[in-house]
Design a protein that fits this description.
Strand order of the largest sheet: 2-8-7-6-5-3-4
Number of domains: 2
Number of strands: 13
Bound molecules: pyridoxal-5'-phosphate
Largest sheet: 7 strands, mixed
CATH class of the largest domain: Alpha Beta
Distance between the termini: 26 Å
CATH superfamily of the largest domain: Type I PLP-dependent aspartate aminotransferase-like (Major domain)
CATH architecture of the largest domain: 3-Layer(aba) Sandwich
Radius of gyration: 20 Å
Oligomer: single chain
Number of helices: 14
């Protein structure tokens, strides 16, 4: 185990600040399972309003938000349309097929963003032996699309298509607030494009736990039942909801610093001969190395020995994620170390 001084492996590595911990210690609490926790109720009301939805539900994780949304929207044998590089397909232990019985049809999409026309091509015909297409799933921002932001007009066109076809639409908002800050589009405009949407508190917003799923009254009623069934209903959860309230007040606007740091890192990498890198839109930087002496794992290991953490995506690809526990000096040190190691 390495001790990372500069941990760019993920924005999930943030630790709750002293101020956030103080807010948690002072939280009013009650029995969340019975809707009696004032902090949870305040958090869900705020997130529902933020996303332009009637109600919201506090859940332990983003993975559970995706799974419960799919359980509500789909029946066993239904099909979900999602980008081939989505977190849903690669990193949720096959929850949608294993628990909801829904299969996923992947769309090949550059940076994870696909058009209404591509979705139309993926919808199954009404045939006795075909699965029923039920749901379109999109990620905002796209994690393995380099943190790309779905442009609002592309999303609106897709939403129009979904409505026309009577398909449900769901937004995985693990980094939704990065998209809001990065694009200047209000969260509720993204929310208006879908039937269900969630945002993660435990990534760029810096909370230790939690995500909030939002939708209509009926959707959230059904989602609450699934939360009970899956054992996700909690008790004095206000202690963690208070961290979410603190984050909404203090950690949203500052996401632009993470985006600036991501650009700063990409610019520094750009000047290294053996590295190719895109200009990041938000806080995720994917870059490729072409070096005869070492592969991505070996570079990550050499960096780890200097206390710098980076994610390995493939033999040649690495990922760096900026967040509130890494400042510009840390970014410069990480870039300089990569330059030095790659020679
Ligand atoms: C795009 C995306 N969706 C969903 C998740 C799952 O969120 P959680 O870790 O809160 O379960 C992640 C986590 O990295 C993610 O990046």
């Amino acid at each position: 185990m390495h001790d990372f001084r500069i941990d760019l492996r993920s924005d999930t590595k943030t630790r709750p600040s002293a101020e956030m911990r103080a807010a948690m210690a002072e939280a009013s609490v009650g029995d969340e399972q019975h809707d009696e926790d004032p902090s949870v109720n305040e958090l869900t009301a705020r997130v529902a309003a933020l996303l332009g939805k009637s109600r919201a539900l506090f859940l332990p994780s983003g993975t559970m938000c995706n799974l419960i949304a799919i359980l509500v929207h789909c029946r066993p044998g239904d099909e979900i349309i999602a980008a081939g590089n989505s977190h849903l397909i690669s990193s949720e232990s096959g929850g949608a097929p294993a628990i909801a019985g829904a299969q996923i049809r992947s769309v090949s999409a550059e940076r994870g963003i696909f058009s209404a026309m591509q979705a139309a091509a993926a919808v199954r015909p009404r045939k006795i032996n075909a699965p029923t297409t039920r749901l379109i799933h999109v990620e905002q921002t796209v994690n393995r699309g380099g943190g790309a932001i779905w442009p609002i007009d592309v999303l609106q066109e897709l939403a129009g298509f979904a409505r026309e076809q009577h398909l449900a639409m769901h937004i995985d908002g693990a980094r939704l607030m990065n998209a809001v800050v990065g694009s200047g589009v209000a969260a509720r405009e993204f929310g208006d494009c879908c039937d269900s949407v969630w945002l993660d508190l435990s990534k760029g917003l810096g909370c230790p736990i939690g995500a909030v799923l939002a939708g209509s009254e009926d959707f959230i009623y059904a989602a609450r039942r699934w939360k009970f069934r899956l054992g996700g209903a909690m008790r004095q959860a206000g202690v963690v909801a208070a961290a979410g309230l603190y984050a909404l007040d203090n950690n949203v606007e500052r996401l632009r610093i993470d985006h600036e740091n991501a650009r700063r890192f990409a610019e520094a990498l750009h000047s290294i001969d053996s590295v190719s890198v895109h200009t990041p839109e938000t806080n995720l930087v994917f870059f490729e190395i072409e070096c005869s002496r070492m592969n991505a794992s070996q570079l990550a290991e050499a960096l780890a020995r200097r206390g710098i953490g980076l994610g390995v995506e493939s033999r040649t690809m690495l990922r760096a994620v900026t967040h509130l526990d890494v400042n510009a000096a840390g970014i410069d040190e990480a870039a300089a170390a990569i330059s030095h190691i790659l020679g």
